[in-house]
């Protein structure tokens, strides 16, 4: 079973696995699905969705929200290197969160999510300019975002998204089996993480003063 580590305390906790449900997305950006809660679970898998706005009967999932930092360690047997093949985003204003989805071939890698004061490229150390007031660095290992010829398999720098919380993202590193993606957020956020074979996602919403 995977183990979750908060870097500040090295404590181990469990992240629930989510159920897949495709519903409508209110955005003109690349679509991603909204989660449907299951007893004892708190995430869902991503998928293509229609562009129509949701009806009044739509329900928004609750629970599963966490504070940053958080992480999971996994070991992938060589030579099968997980490959990030796409990055997709969607705003869900009707439920109060934005979503970023990573499409992944192979086994799901481990991950670490933390705030950083500024975003720099790995390994060059050059600054990366992102919109937003707070920056989150997502590190996946082992993983890569390039093909056998070295060509990138994802968009390296997204245009400004203009979502309520998620303002933009950039590929910050793809080096020696370590993939890093930086998010520009409007401010401190609570997060929710979901996994299914071939997909990994993070939801972000404004951090409340109470429990996440």
Give an overview in words.
- With 212 residues, the protein is mostly beta strands.
- The protein has a single domain, classed as Immunoglobulin-like (Sandwich), CATH 2.60.40.3500.
- Helices cover 0% and strands 37% of the residues.
- The chain contains no helices and eleven strands.
- The chain has a seven-stranded antiparallel sheet, with no helix packed on it. A four-stranded antiparallel sheet has the order 4-5-11-10, with no helix packed on it.
- A hairpin with a 2-residue loop joins strand 8 and strand 9.
- The chain is globular.
- The protein starts with a strand and ends in a 6-residue tail after the last strand.
Question: What is the compact description of this entry?
Answer:
This protein has 212 residues and is mostly beta strands.
Q: Helicity level, as a percent range?
A: under 10%
H/E series: EEEEEEEEEEE
* % residues in beta strands: 35-45%
Shape: globular
CATH architecture: Sandwich
Total domain modules? 1
Through-space gap between termini: 24 Å
Question: What is the count of helical runs?
Answer: 0
Using only CA atoms, what is the Rg? 16 Å
Count the strands? 11
Structural class from helices and strands?
A: mainly beta
Largest sheet features: 7 strands, antiparallel
**Uncertain segments:** 1-57
Name of the CATH first level = Mainly Beta
- Could you tell me the CATH topology label: Immunoglobulin-like
The neighbouring-strand order within the major sheet is: 2-1-3-6-7-9-8
Q: Indicate the mean pLDDT.
A: 76
